[in-house]
Write a structure and sequence with these properties.
By secondary structure, the chain is α/β, with parallel strands linked by helices. It is built from 12 helices and 10 strands. It has one domain: 3-Layer(aba) Sandwich (Rossmann fold), CATH 3.40.50. Helix 1 packs parallel to helix 2, helix 4 packs parallel to helix 5 and helix 6 packs across helix 12. The structure holds NADP nicotinamide-adenine-dinucleotide phosphate. NADP nicotinamide-adenine-dinucleotide phosphate binds next to helix 1 and strand 7.
């Protein structure tokens, strides 16, 4: 069973399982919304696998119970990925935290389930880039700096993953693994993209940053590699625990420059650095918080992805390829 199948990341996970002949139970918010499901039905048609759709909502207690019946593995990806929300408690924390609790409580009531994979994030490991000043971070580290007021999306992912481990520790029937991807890039299988990944790529080509982009640091990975990681962890019993899934450490300016190598002639992509003092000064006007600028601009990421290389044996796609392919799709260009 895979939650959030209509989403950007889950689309590729679904494809992997279908191409390998699996039967998938997909609980979605609206199984009658053909627009949101058509790409999944198309994937099913071109594969040896099968999809059965169900209706469920993260905020409705026990609504995943029916779809889970008979499944041996549960992959929980559903959670809003938005950085600009009106009410962080209602829009981020509740679906992330309550949703994880809801899905895992149903796992506890479903004897067939032996393995659970939760899509967490690197933001459950590190809250702000400034934390890398004390050195690289691996799976042993936890984000202990985010809150409802500071980096609420990061806080939602941290609370949700901690809840997953807490529920896991209280039982001994099923195993748990979390996939902690960095910013996911690369082509989407669905047309109606809600993920913040899409908005970031869209913004780079929109001209908003044509006078320059800040060195706002993060790490990134291709969506197809994130799907492979979920697939491997789901089907191999011995793969447990947290897995950072991240190809490269980068920043907003570098991402703009990588895309500009291919599309710079046609699109006003950022090629110059916007100095930190200027970003800090403009922050309230451009919708950023000054403490977020202070703790993230100019502080490079140092994420240790070695566990994903040795245990998952991932061979990461090149970041330039992922970024350019994603940009081409968002702006309807040929690559
Ligand atoms: P997305 O495209 O916006 O997908 C989010 C999914 O969650 C959608 O299927 C959505 O369903 C579902 N969802 C949201 N609220 C729900 C609710 N109340 N009940 C049931 N389903 C609900 O985002 P994404 O980028 O693929 O993210 C998927 C997962 O990856 C999330 O857990 C996210 O935190 C994690 N992640 C993403 C990135 C990234 O860069 N994209 C990086 C690290 C981790 P609807 O279609 O019905 O809205």
């Amino acid at each position: 069973m895979i939650t959030g199948a209509t989403g950007y990341v889950a689309g590729w996970i679904v494809k992997h399982f279908l191409d390998n002949g699996y039967t998938l139970h997909l609980p979605v918010r609206d199984p009658d919304n053909l627009k949101k499901l058509s790409h999944l039905k198309e994937l099913e048609k071109n594969s040896s696998g099968t999809i059965v759709f169900f209706k469920a909502d993260l905020l409705k207690k026990d609504s995943y119970l029916e779809s889970m019946q008979g499944c041996d593995t549960v992959i929980h990806t559903a959670s809003p990925f938005k950085t600009k929300v009106k009410d962080p408690q209602k829009d981020l924390i509740e679906p992330a935290l309550y949703g994880t609790e809801n899905v895992l409580n149903s796992v506890n009531q479903t004897p067939s389930v032996k393995k659970v994979v939760v899509t967490s994030s690197v933001v459950a490991i590190v809250g702000d880039s400034i934390e890398f000043q004390s050195g690289p971070k691996d799976e042993s580290h936890w984000n202990n700096t985010s809150s409802l007021l500071h980096q609420p999306y990061n806080y939602s992912k941290t609370l949700a993953e901690q809840k997953a481990w807490q529920i896991y520790e209280a039982q001994n029937r099923w195993e748990l693994a979390t996939i902690n991807p960095s910013l996911v890039l690369g082509p989407s299988l669905n047309e109606q993209v809600t993920s913040e990944s899409y908005n970031i790529i869209k913004q780079l080509g929109s001209g908003e940053l044509k006078f320059g982009a800040p060195k706002y640091h993060f790490a990134a990975v291709d969506v197809r590699d994130v799907a492979i990681a979920h697939f491997k962890v789901a089907i191999q019993d011995e793969l447990k625990g947290r897995f950072i899934v991240s190809a490269d450490n980068t920043n907003l300016l570098e991402l703009g420059r990588l895309i500009a190598e291919r599309f710079g002639d046609k699109y006003p992509l950022p090629q110059k650095e916007l100095p930190k003092w200027l970003v800090w000064g403009l922050a309230p006007i451009i919708g950023l918080k000054r403490d977020v600028v202070a703790k993230n601009v100019g502080h490079p990421w140092q994420l240790d992805n070695s566990k994903s290389l040795t245990e998952l044996k991932l061979e990461y796609r090149d970041l330039k390829q992922s970024a350019q392919e994603f940009f081409a799709q968002v702006y309807n260009e040929k690559i």
